[in-house]
Model the fold of this input.
Amino acid sequence: MMSSDSSAVAGGLARHIPVLARRAVTWLGVRDGGVYVDATFGAGGYARAILATPGARVIGIDRDDTAIAAGAALVEEARGRLTLIEGRFSELDTIAAAHGAAGVDGVVFDLGVSSMQIDEPARGFSFRLDGPLDMRMGRGGPSAADVVARASERDLAFIIATLGEERHARAIARAIVKTRAAHQIVTTRALADIVARIVHSKEGAIHPATRTFQALRILVNDELAELARGLAAAERVLKPAGRLVVVAFHSLEDRIVKTFLAERSRAPASSRHRPQMIAAPPTFRALTRRPETPDEAEIAANSRARSAKLRAAERTDAATRSAASETRPPRLPSLADIMRGRA
Ligand SMILES: C[S@@+](CC[C@H](N)C(=O)[O-])C[C@H]1O[C@@H](n2cnc3c(N)ncnc32)[C@H](O)[C@@H]1O
Done:
C-alpha cells in the first residue's frame, strides 16, 4: 500500500503512496533491457519506480478495471515500455506469455487494496465511509452483501475467525443472522454498526470492524488462493536469477509467502509417499532472511505501512515444482457453496 519513500502517484479519488517501493525495486535488481511483472499495478507507483531505469519494460496487471483505466497516462508516458492488462495475478505467467514475455526478470506483488479502492465509498471496502457493502476488486462474483445475506451462521463465524483472526467471530455471526432476519444488511455502515455493538476497541486501537471487514474482503476476492496460485505462476515465469519480491500486509498473507519461499528454497525431504520429490532441487534462493519492514518515518507518514512485510528471493535454474506442492491456504467454505445457501 503506502509510504513516503517514493513519489506519490495521483489516481482515482485519493493519492496512493506506495509502501516500501524503493526497497522492493532495489530487490528486483532492475536493469536496462529487463522485463518485469508488476502483479498489482494499483496506481502504478511500483511500475513507475521500475520504469525509472531506462530500457526496463513492465507488464502491469490489476483485476480492477478502474486501476487499468487510470494507468493510461503512464502507458503513454512510458512510450512502449509499459503494457497494462486487466486480469488476475494467478494467471500472470500466461498473461506475460501472451504479451511476448515467456520468461521475465522479476515479479513484484504489493498485496491488498489501494487507497483509491478504500477511499471510494461506492466500492464498499471502508467501515468508515458509508456505501454499498460490495468489496469486490474486480467486477464479477458475489459481493460482501451477498455473503452476509446467504452464509450460514456457522460459516460466517468460521470465515470471520479464520480470515479476520477475530476473537468475537461467533457473537458477530449470531448478530448478523439475527439482524438479517429483520432487514437486509446492504451498507458498510449497517455492518460496521452491528460489529461495533459487540467489539469494543480501546481508544487509539483499530476500528472494531477492521477484522470483520478484512475477513469478508479476503473471502469475496479469494485473496489467499489467488496469492498461492500467483506465487506458483511467478515460479513458472521467472528466468534463472530472476527476482521475486512480495510485500504483504497481514499475517495470513505473509504466512503463505513465508511457507512458499521456505518450501521452495530447500530440497524437499524424501518421502515414501512422494518419491518423485526426492531429487527436486530448490527453485528459489531466499534473499531476505527475515522480512523487511518500513522504518518509523515511513509509518509516521503513512499509517497503512505499519503492517507491511517484504520478502525477496531469486529464482534458481531448477525446473518448476509440480502444482501438487503448491502452498495451500486455509480450507474455507467456497463462495459457490455459500451462494447456494449451504448450511
Ligand atoms: C496495494 S495496491 C497496489 C499499489 C501499487 N503497488 C502502487 O504502487 O500503486 C493492490 C492492487 O492489487 C490489485 N489486486 C489485488 N489482488 C489482485 C489479483 N489477484 N490479481 C490482480 N490484481 C490484484 C488490487 O486491485 C489493487 O489495485
Remarks:
- Strands lie at 35-38, 57-62, 82-86, 104-110, 238-248, 284-286, 309-315.
- The radius of gyration is 20 Å.
